[in-house]
Amino acid sequence: MFFDDTIAAIATAPGEAGIGIIRISGEKTLQIMDKLFKSNQGRFLKEMPPRMLTYGNIFDPDTQQKVDEVLAVYMRAPHTYTKEDIVEINCHGGMIPVKRILGLVLKHGARMAEAGEFTKRAFLNGRIDLAQAEAVMDLISAKTEKGFDVALDQLEGGLSKEIKRIRNEILELLAHIEVSIDFSEDDIDEVTLELLLDKSLKIEEELKHMLETADTGKIIREGLNTVIVGKPNVGKSSLLNALLRETRAIVTDIPGTTRDVIEEQLNIRGILLRLMDTAGIRETLDVVEKIGVERTKAFFNQADLVIFVLDASRELTSEDIEIMALLEDKKVLVIINKTDLPLKLDISKVEAMLKNKIMIKLSLVENVGLELLEDAIVDMVFKGEVKRKDQVMVTNVRHKNSLEKAAQSLQEGISAIKQRLPLDFIEVDYRNAWEYLGEITGESVGEDLLDHIFSNFCIGK
């Protein structure tokens, strides 16, 4: 599938920079450049070898006024990102030169690219599949080394290869079912059913292993929403500052110093923490502090991880107990802070109320326990397991949903086999599983979904 129009966009981020890049893709690319670009030797870009940067100038053809000196490169279809003719113009960075050049490109035959349209063309022209296309944006937006590595693996086809392999296995089963339907007698061939069941159970196990990576994969891709809670003055802001290795939050002995939610991002060994220090939860008549407490409760309900801080030098209060009552169904790390001071906290009571919750003793004054907290966060995300080198990771919610639907359809097919239902019924379940897996790679996906996915891309990609 190739397009009869030519698109263009600024491919670099807005603002001042050493270089700005305008990208053009489509059949009129060289015609446009013939009007705008001349090399220092007076030659057109089409006369230059492909993939070689050529020094020259961009001119306004109407006025013959020089717009900027540039380096331009022509890449010939089909060996390009979009599988179409592409030109990239490297001009001086800054808003004025890139906008002027883009304006001339649009005036002389191109149209403005839509969000993600270059990558969409790469997908529609068959250079990459949909999972790889989505990995492009994940690669750009990665905030940690681990997130980048997973996105790069998906861009190189790690997930796609596994999905296509499983789809092919299901397709073989479908072919077997259809042959059995066409040539079977009244009774269902027991050998056929046993063969289907054996292979189906193996595929079901593979899908299960892929789905087991989804929670960790989502955190690697999007980060872990983490909220620090506790009553006032237990050391929440001090903990935030210690994790960030900088003074971000004001720390005083006055209860209620933190009156709003402070949000920061933190990279802990490849895991992005979206960390929120909250107002201490307590009854208060202060209007501003009361709003902060309400916001704390809202963030608490949305958090992936709760870091609950207790003060070892103070006895349990009704405020502590009120918070602990909310933690039962949450992923929680319990911090016993200020352990350098005389112990007054009844730790056994805390352990009784917060059964099976990880508890870490901490003294920020003596720099004790912070590394244990980081270890606990990493272990919680990866569930104490190291990812196998050959194991793909599911990071996208859309992919997870499609995998769950495929697994459900396969389970229904397995159940139908065990019940000795007609092969026609079984075929429907296996075809559904095959289709759902195709949604991940884009082999069975509608135009509306494509538009939605690529609308989240940046304009020049």
CATH superfamily of the largest domain: P-loop containing nucleotide triphosphate hydrolases
Low-confidence stretches: 249-259, 281-285, 385-389
The coarse silhouette is flat
Q: How many domains, in number, for the residues?
A: 3
Number of E-state strands: 13
Distance between the termini: 19 Å
Strand arrangement within the widest β-sheet reads 3-4-5-6-2-1-7
Count the helices. How many?
A: 16
Mean pLDDT: 85
**SSE string, helices as H and strands as E:** EEHEEEEHEHHHHHHEHEEHEHEHEHHHH
Largest sheet: 7 strands, mixed
Judged by helices, strands and strand pairing, the structural class is alpha/beta
How large is the share of residues in beta strands? Answer: 15-25%
User: What is the percent of helical residues?
Assistant: 40-55%
State the CATH topology of the largest domain: Rossmann fold
Report the CATH C-level class of the largest domain.
Alpha Beta
CATH architecture tag of the largest domain: 3-Layer(aba) Sandwich
| Gyration radius, rounded | 29 Å
